[in-house]
Amino acid sequence: MKLIIAVISNEDANKVQKGLINENFFATRLSTKGGFLREGNATFLIGVNDEKVPEALDIIEKYSKRRNKIVPNAIVNEFGAFSAHLPIEVSVGGATVFIVNVDQFVKV
Hints:
- By secondary structure, this protein is α+β, with helices and mostly antiparallel strands.
- It has a single domain, classed as Alpha-Beta Plaits (2-Layer Sandwich).
- The protein has 2 helices and 6 strands; from the N terminus they run βαββαβββ.
């Protein structure tokens, strides 16, 4: 058995959740916040049998799309003042997925 931990952009989270439900995957959805852009994410905890991992990953990949976003490029200098620079383009979205072995699963 595996535990899939998938961090997904809020923009894609509802689509991923519906895709998982449609294919009979049980998932717990947590509201989380990213450290780099400080934007909202959803973290899904999905317990699956080993043979179902590829199917779950296909669903996550299908509904999690990468996109480019323009963000402010403000730098705090050594005196604590902000120095504004031109905005930069960064790649956001997609999914970050961890797959870990589960030694024991108990439902009470």
